[in-house]
UniProtKB/TrEMBL annotation:
Keywords: Hypusine, Initiation factor, Protein biosynthesis. This is Eukaryotic translation initiation factor 5A. Gene3D superfamilies: 2.30.30.30, Nucleic acid-binding proteins. eIF-5A seems to be the only eukaryotic protein to have a hypusine residue which is a post-translational modification of a lysine by the addition of a butylamino group. Belongs to the eIF-5A family. Translation factor that promotes translation elongation and termination, particularly upon ribosome stalling at specific amino acid sequence contexts. Binds between the exit (E) and peptidyl (P) site of the ribosome and promotes rescue of stalled ribosome: specifically required for efficient translation of polyproline-containing peptides as well as other motifs that stall the ribosome. Acts as ribosome quality control (RQC) cofactor by joining the RQC complex to facilitate peptidyl transfer during CAT tailing step. InterPro entries: IF5A-like (IPR001884), IF5A-like_N (IPR048670), IF5A_C (IPR020189), NA-bd_OB-fold (IPR012340), Rib_uL2_dom2 (IPR014722), Trans_elong_IF5A_hypusine_site (IPR019769), Translation_prot_SH3-like_sf (IPR008991). The keyword Protein biosynthesis applies. GO terms for biological process: positive regulation of translational elongation; positive regulation of translational termination. The keyword Protein biosynthesis applies. Residues 1-20 are annotated as: Disordered. Residues 1-10 have a biased composition (Basic and acidic residues). PROSITE patterns: IF5A_HYPUSINE (PS00302).
């Protein structure tokens, strides 16, 4: 053994952004990682075993953050990465001029690093509700280090 000191870089609490799951067990409306993007599965088809012995799963999925359609073909016995997808509700406090929102967290602090959603209908609903002085709660979906507002609830006038 040497007397040298070893320094290790620490990462975030050891929590992985994905977990492995056998391709044959992933179903429609589940989640999958395709090309390093978190996606929701919209279609799964499985081929029969061929001369090389593996049934293949053909996944058609939509990126949960940008709405792009992605496809992948994986042997059904192999593992795929599945993203940890979390949804959190925050109360909307303010919308800045540059499109960033100020959200109230559970512990009473504010979260100011999210922009308004790119989805036009949701964007308009949030902006109109806020301008009318309604109490709004937004749902933020997070996966693989990305976050985006994905839903809105109106909890009545202020």
């Amino acid at each position: 053994m040497s007397d040298e000191e070893h320094h290790f870089e620490s990462t975030d609490a050891g929590a992985s952004k994905t977990y492995p799951q056998q391709a044959g067990t992933i179903r429609k409306n589940g989640y999958i990682v395709i090309k390093q993007r978190a996606c929701k599965v919209v279609e799964v088809s499985t081929s029969k075993t061929g001369k090389h012995g593996h049934a293949k799963c053909h996944f058609v999925a939509i990126d949960i953050f940008n709405g792009k359609k992605l496809e992948d073909i994986v042997p059904s016995s192999h593992n795929c990465d599945v993203p940890h997808v979390n949804r959190t509700d925050y109360q909307l406090i303010d919308i800045s001029e540059d499109g960033f929102v100020s959200l109230l967290t559970e512990n009473g602090s504010t979260k100011d690093d999210l922009k308004l959603p790119t989805d036009d209908a949701l964007y308009t609903q949030i902006e109109n509700g806020f301008n009318e002085g309604k109490d709004l709660v937004v749902t933020v979906m997070s996966a693989m280090g990305e976050e985006q507002i994905c839903a809105l609830k109106d909890i009545g006038p202020k």
